[in-house]
Amino acid sequence: MDDEVKQDVDRMIAFIYYESREKIKELEIEAREKYNTEKARIIDEKTRILRTEFEEKLKLLKHRKVIELSKVRRQQRMAILKEKEHIVSTLFEIVENRLRSTKITKEMCRECPEMLEPVVFCRNDDRSTVKKYINGDIKKIDDEFIGGLVLCSKDGREVCDNSFLTRMDVMKKRYMKHISRCIFERTGTSERLESQCQDG
């Protein structure tokens, strides 16, 4: 009888032990699944946060890049314009220096309108030429006019400014676009300036 009770108790203990082990396995599996699920959720959440931050930073970098490129291009354009202005200014300085040594011709005298004994302003070097073709009171022209002729009627109502300075100013106003096109487009200077700015 005692043996039977002992066997029943042993079987019961073995069953409880077996059930406990199975329950432990189930709990371990469930815990592992929950851990993996939570781990995947956390990784996914962190990944989304990092991706969002990365995209925002990328957008910011792209925006900054656009701004910087625009700034660089604007600086390049300004540098090119400044260099073009310098080239044109240098060109007119060369022309001005040449005009200072250019003498008045017979044709220039005949281009002036006829006036009755006008006051004629010219350089001293041109007095003899002017005297041959224009009958008037000859006086020295101011150096700022570079050279050429300025005629003024006795009453001061009629003035013909044919000085080299005025001719240059008229040429600048009328033909500056054409002059720039000849200098920069036909010679390829614009492309070289742009290349220099980009290299710099």
Automatic annotation (TrEMBL):
Pfam family, one: vATP-synt_E
Gene3D superfamilies, A to Z: 6.10.250.1620, ATP synthase, E subunit, C-terminal
Keywords, sorted A to Z: Ion transport, Transport
Stored InterPro entries: ATPase_E_C, ATPase_V1_Esu
Molecular function, one GO term: proton-transporting ATPase activity, rotational mechanism
Taxonomy, superkingdom: Eukaryota
Cleavable signal peptide: none
Gene Ontology cellular component annotations, sorted alphabetically: proton-transporting two-sector ATPase complex, catalytic domain
Annotated family: Belongs to the V-ATPase E subunit family.
Name of the protein in its database record: V-type H+-transporting ATPase subunit E
